[in-house]
Every structure is written in C-alpha cells, then in structure tokens.
Amino acid sequence: MRWEDLDQQPCSLARTLAVVGDRWTLLILRDCFLGVRRFDAFEQRLGITRHVLTDRLKKLVSYGVLYKSPYQERPRREEYRLSEIGLELHPVILGLVSWGDKHMSDERGAPIVHIHKSCGQPMHPITHCSECGEAITAKDIKLKVAKKWQDELNEFLPIKKPLLKSLL
Amino acid sequence: MRWEDLDQQPCSLARTLAVVGDRWTLLILRDCFLGVRRFDAFEQRLGITRHVLTDRLKKLVSYGVLYKSPYQERPRREEYRLSEIGLELHPVILGLVSWGDKHMSDERGAPIVHIHKSCGQPMHPITHCSECGEAITAKDIKLKVAKKWQDELNEFLPIKKPLLKSLL
DNA sequence: AAATATAGGTTCCTTTTTAGAACTTGTCAA
DNA sequence: TTGACAAGTTCTAAAAAGGAACCTATATTT
C-alpha cells in the first residue's frame, strides 16, 4: 500500500492517517494547539527540516485541517491556523497525550496539565458513548460492517466474525 | 530531532509518538482491535513488507503495547495480542476513526459502525472531563506547565503565555 | 523418501523519504 | 550598502521502506 492510496481505502482510520499519519504532522498539530502559527516558530521548536515542514503544512492545508491567514502585506506573510475541522482533532491529541502521561512519563508525571475551564480541575479525557452518555472502553464496543461497504470491505480488508469478542 | 530521541522529549505526545507515531504502527493496531493476531494475517491485510512488519511488532512488544503468546509448540508459533496498555489506546483509534468517518468518507458514510453493547446503539466517541463529567472541546481546556517540568520545557519547548486562548 | 506447504522470519538490492546545509525573494532598518 | 527577517526552494547524502528471494522447523501429500 502506498501513501497515495491510503485516503482511498475502505477504512476511516486509514483515511485519517493519510492526513495525520506521520510523526511530524502530529507534532505540528500539537504545536498548533499550543498556539504556534508561524513557519519559523514550527521549525525552531520542532527541529524539523524546512523541506518536510513545507510539505506537511501544504498537506494539512489541502485537507482543510489548517488554513493560511495573512498577518502582513508587503512582504506578504501568512500564518497557519487550525480550522474547525482541525480543532476536531483535539480529542485525538488529547488521547495520545493522556496515554503518554500514563504510560511513558517518569516519576514527575505529566509535563503539561490540562485544566477544564468550567470546573477548574486538572483533567484527563474519558471517552463516552454519544447515545447513552456512559463511559466506554474497548471491551464495551462491538463492530458491524456497514451494508453499503460490505462488498468493498470483503474484497480488501475482510473482517472475520468474532471481531472484538476475540480481544477479551 | 531523531526517532530515537522522541521518547526522551519533555512532552507526552512526542513520547507516545515514539511508540505509535507512524502509519504502519497505527494500521497494525487497528487490525489488532479487529482481532488479527498473526504475522501472516497482518502481512496479507496490510500489504506491508515483512521487514517493516517485523520491526514494528518488535517495537510494540518492547513498549508493552502487544505481547507474544504461543498458540502452538513444534514448531513454536506465537501470536501478537493487545496488552492492557495496548487496549488503552482504544480511545485514540476511536478518535481517529470518528474523525475520518466525519471528514474523510464519501456519501456512504462510515464503513464500520461501532455498537455500544450496553445500549445497543451505533455510537461515536465524545470526550468528557474526568473530574466533572462534562463533554469538552478544544476551547474548554487551558494548559498549565507542571512545576517539575518547567525548566526542561522552557529550555526545549518554550510555551508562550496565551496558550489555548489564541485558538479562539 | 522426496516434494510441497506453512508460519515467521532474514538478506539483499532498489526506490523513496528525510536530514542538513546553502541559496532565493521581497521588504525593511541601520 | 549591508544586513536582517520570514518563508520558502534546491542540492547532496543518509536513512527508511519496498520488493523479491532465501531460510528454518515441522507436517502433509505424492
């Protein structure tokens, strides 16, 4: 499978990875959520090569995750900002950070604390069901192939019966 | 910044990316959550080269995300299964899938539907605050640098005052 | 007994990506 | 006139990934 084919796969995860599926892209997005907006700021903070930074920013803009906003004319300068679509990646970033806080940090714990403005507490994210509001884990979910996708999925990514049952 | 340095960065996101920060690793984990366990099954479903698959499985085992479990002696064969730590990546996978369902799919919608076993409904994940239980978005969170990390963060990844305020 | 199949790799060589440094462009300030 | 700044582009070298063939231990088929 090639990079270019990823966003055509019959799988939403693969298609999302076509946009954010490399480490630089996710680190760029982390910085976006920290308020970083300018080419040279990304470059200095990340230690990324200009070549790759240009490429990733272009890709993020082309998928509508970031948009360019002029902050100066003559010479024209533009900064990169999170769109609404980009802001919706926040749960993903938060999930990755939270996992790292728990499983990858040393005795000092989380480097950055997330404060929930409305309750004022340091929080970590909990995933809930959109329908009943209950908190969920992997074991509370079963999967079903959507009818409209059945043929395509069976051809390219067949999924056996037991599905998530086999995790338990 | 090198791959090898990532898991030493003063940032939980960077450290998590040291484990899952490339597209193949996340696709392997997707298949794990679908119940795939064996080397050749991963290979066939993903179209990944054996070389890379070997490398990624080794890395996931070394970080404790997967563990090897013998399913046959003579010849000894082992399968790869999600550990408790690996299962805790479910919110991340679910977040990526949900974003793709919403922003990357065609008119047919989501290829795979997630059913919440206890309420029986097709669901998508909502991120809630662990402390007060309210649903949150990017704009409901502000960030604070943990005291113990202040010096290290200021040296390597200085964070300006406005933080998330600037997203709004 | 010999040939073939299977699972899970490893080796070798080629192509693609990334790193690292230097160069470019338009404008302003000293 | 020279230098600085932001946001790139271009060049070469190094690292990673792709692709195909080979390896090992055992079981099955001919």
From TrEMBL, chains A, B:
PROSITE patterns: HTH_HXLR (PS51118). Gene3D superfamilies: Winged helix-like DNA-binding domain superfamily/Winged helix DNA-binding domain. Residues 11-108 form the HTH hxlR-type domain. Keywords: DNA-binding, Transcription, Transcription regulation. This is Winged helix-turn-helix transcriptional regulator. It comes from Zhongshania guokunii. The lineage of its organism: Bacteria, Pseudomonadati, Pseudomonadota, Gammaproteobacteria, Cellvibrionales.
